Predict the 3D structure of the following.
Amino acid sequence: MHDYVIGLDGGGTKTDGVLVGQDGRVLARRCVGASNPNDVGEEASAAVVRALAEVLATEAGVHLADCFVFGGISGALNHREGLTARLRSAVPVPGGVEIDSDMVNLLSAELPNRDGACIICGTGSACFVRRGQEVFRIGGWGYLLDSAGSGYDIGRQALEAALRAQDGRGCPTALSAKLADALGAPVQDSLTRLYAEGKTLIASLSPAVFTAAREGDAVARAILDRNAAALAELLCAAWRRLCEGMPEDTRPTGMPVFLDGGICRHNHPAWRDAIASHIPPDVPAALSLASRPVIWGAAAEAMRRDGWTPDTIRHAGSVFLADPHISG
Amino acid sequence: MHDYVIGLDGGGTKTDGVLVGQDGRVLARRCVGASNPNDVGEEASAAVVRALAEVLATEAGVHLADCFVFGGISGALNHREGLTARLRSAVPVPGGVEIDSDMVNLLSAELPNRDGACIICGTGSACFVRRGQEVFRIGGWGYLLDSAGSGYDIGRQALEAALRAQDGRGCPTALSAKLADALGAPVQDSLTRLYAEGKTLIASLSPAVFTAAREGDAVARAILDRNAAALAELLCAAWRRLCEGMPEDTRPTGMPVFLDGGICRHNHPAWRDAIASHIPPDVPAALSLASRPVIWGAAAEAMRRDGWTPDTIRHAGSVFLADPHISG
């Protein structure tokens, strides 16, 4: 157990970092640039993590050798070993440095010591399950290989529906006009731009689907229903994972589920209810919007991996979350 | 009507060209590099078309001014105006030069003067319908925005099934092992590579799905069935287009459909039968594999657009297709 932990929350836009003492006091906080290795490369991702950890230690006036570093970084799952190796050889952290998905931050923010699940639904989607010391991922295989209710899937299916209406396969839908408004041109004239800007542009069209559905368009409603069902399917798999190998009478009586990501936040509580409507009665999932800052999750995960006791983490959490730099 | 036509068939790998006289004799034939404007850009695509037309005229010993040029080029649909403008200003072809999708070559090879449809199903998929002088496209909006039975869709859905089996959402499938064999590593360890190589690598996995289905895997069979149904849906829309506005008793009694592309060719006749099994009895589609060289279609389309009579085109076709350089 180290005297301090550094928790990092990294993504495609920025990397947030915090250095915390055993009493939960925030001794340093800094935000720097992108560290998603899929976007910036493994070398640059490791350099950002290294630089941020060093800056935080300097700012707090402590030795990096006294810190345990955990970085929850989007896109890191397929680079975990490479990033860890680069960091261990470059950063003088005897206790080590560990890297995982940024989803672990969300999970640890809301469920530091409890079993349960988190669903993130923004441009992409994924579900993470905590069962004791184990963390499982369900879904989240990226935009090309998964179709589970992400903003990208919702936008893509809306574009497909507009094109199907146009070429005579599908029925007319208000989505054609809504998407043309959002794109500034009919969908069939926007193909070059859609392929050039790809995932980000396609996901940015999802609000038009929610609007069309609210206004009664049946095609938009069917798209949202299908995607809510896909997210519910993640939670059914999460519940099976949580109960795997347990005799019926020792199973948990409920599964707390925390929702995060732009789609969940912007469409709460309707989206939560849409997901819940597809969960069968024998899966006792209790859905609510995530409310704790993910940077706390990064710090809490560092504490957990460094062997701090649940009591110490709980106490640190109450001090940390009351800090005006965090809660403000 | 010009003395000669030049027909071009361009794609992401090569551009095939032929110069033909009014009697159908092949006076020059050449193959050069890629001209898909999505891959090489509009400027380079126009440069390839221009250079190939000039080489063919020189080789045949005729003036380019005596030739009508038609280029059926993959990826050209969203660049038609830009490409045509670039070529008209650069090539001294008084009669003009016209550019369209490479699908038009296939359509004109098989249906130069008849109404009907063509389906191409390779890495991508699309359906083209000829009704008199009009040509309609159904589907073919590219790999991100369409889900209509292409090799890409088949491969993508197989990867998704393997990942769903892995994360507990889906049932076990022989696809997991088949795809791991093809990729040299389990699917979940191949994500970085799959995203780096994208569409081409994903489509290249479709043979594994046909193998697994033949060996009895239910998940693979369901994927193929779903994709065959999506292709049949294209043909139902094609039939509605063909009959649009016609009183019932004047409708055609049949719709010839020609199949092309790697998926159709490698899995014939099983794939043809799979598609046909999803076509309702009131759609009189007669499916067969395309057999005429698409370069003939490019030349025939040039003749048609240049105003040659159906009889002249038919006679030219019989001479052209007997040419040992073409049929051989």
Q: What stands out?
A: Chain A touches chain B through 34 residues (CB under 8 Å). Residues 13 and 178 of chain A are 28 Å apart (CA to CA).
